[in-house]
Amino acid sequence: MKLISLNDNIVKFGPTTSEADLQSSGAASVTFGNTTIYIGTYQKTSIDQDPIVTSFTNGTRDWTRYYDTSPIDGRGVGLLWDETSQNLYGVFTADGGSQGPNTFGQATQGGWLSGYGSGGGAKASVLLKLDPDDGDSEAGTFIRAQLSNGSTNTVDPVGLDFINNEVIFFGDSFFTPLNVNGQRFGNRNPAFTSPFDYRVALTADLSQATSAAAIGWNGVTQFGSFGGSASGNVGGSNLFLALNLSAQIGTAGFGQSVTTFNYVVNGINIESIFDEGYYLATNPDVAAAVRGGVLESGYVHFLVAGLAEGREPFQFYDEGYYLANNADVAAAVGSGALVSGLQHFLLSGHEEARDPSAAFDSSDYLLRNPDVKAAVDSGAIGSAFEHFANFGLAEGRFSDVLLFDERFYLANNADVAQAVTNGLFSSGFEHFLAFGQTENRDPSAGFSQAAYLALHSDIAAGVANGSIRSAFAHYATFGLAEGRAI
After folding, report:
1. pLDDT (tens digit, 9 = 90+) per residue, 339-355?
2. What are phi and psi for residue 464, nearest 5 degrees?
3. Is 350 a domain residue?
4. Which candidate, 170, 107, 174, 172, places its Cα nearest to that of 142?
5. Would the pLDDT of 190 be above 70?
6. Residue 204, domain member (yes or no)
7. Residue 63 is part of which domain span?
């Protein structure tokens, strides 16, 4: 069980504030057993604020701690309690550096970023590991941004999580965020502006960052998407390509609105079938243009050029297959009468019950779904594929062939569903690639990680010794092609 509570507003209280008043104040808090811990800001003087945390058990105050009593302004923002590890973390802000007893500077010695940095006034985040029994700080780190002149700038904390024995910090970085080596990110995409969505994974003792990513920097345009720092958590450069049966359909977003043009071709909503990750993985030239800021997204490229070029928008259309199985279409493309097989399929092929790939059989889809067949027969829907693209995927009608099923994953992992709702992850798919696969969570009803390991002792040994990231990673990258049973 994990308990996470952050407050966007400054909630002030003091060492004598009653628990009833704390509860009514809206202070961020976590409750485990009979103990509730609250975090906020103590207005020590008219010009001095100190971060404060206090604990109650069965209505009786256990302890109160101030984590920086120097002249800087410090504020308490949120708490994270992980029941499994018994770890408690507090996240704070500080508008300057401080040293000496009872200061953030003292608490963060040995941390990933051991100090505030240069300058003052900007609000850096401070993450502390706290002893739940007495509130003492056991470890800590600053988390900050940096201006071009080297001065520290603001990182506002917006979320926390504890996954796979790592603390995950989410924040808004004003100007350049820092990489795991403590240096500024480079290669900003000019399409993105400050503040930047920023995510850092840290060891449980906060001594080092294991990964860092910021939307708009180093090719990252969506957490967990193709390329950039975040790709290191995916489990291999070929995994995104191998995930050609993922249910990541219609994820054209890049942390900002992507132009859609409401593009519908002969009844098929292109946005509903387009898979951004698949398109970038199978079109490295487009991926490079997106990383370089030349293109807003793969989706925009597809609408402007890729559709005419016959580039495959998602895994259920295969240009080579379509031309090989439709000689008349291949001849028309060869003569220039059509620009691509995809053009033909969208304009008329799907209504002629032509199959777009070996992965989709129109007659089988109608056989499995008699309501859809009735709608097609009556003319209410143009084709089996039109229903599949516009409705069937979202309704889970093809879930038996999906290696990853978003609906299944969220339905069977309530903590992940809540994290997605809270905006900590863009999707269950992002969580699964970064963390879920190594936590032995199953990606769909059709794939059990435990069953795969039980069937293949060599893979189980590789996962156990760390040479293979997960059962899922092996199957997606190698096992599927090897014909391994699942």
Report:
1. 889 889 988 999 999 99
2. -65, -40
3. no
4. 107
5. yes
6. yes
7. 2-218
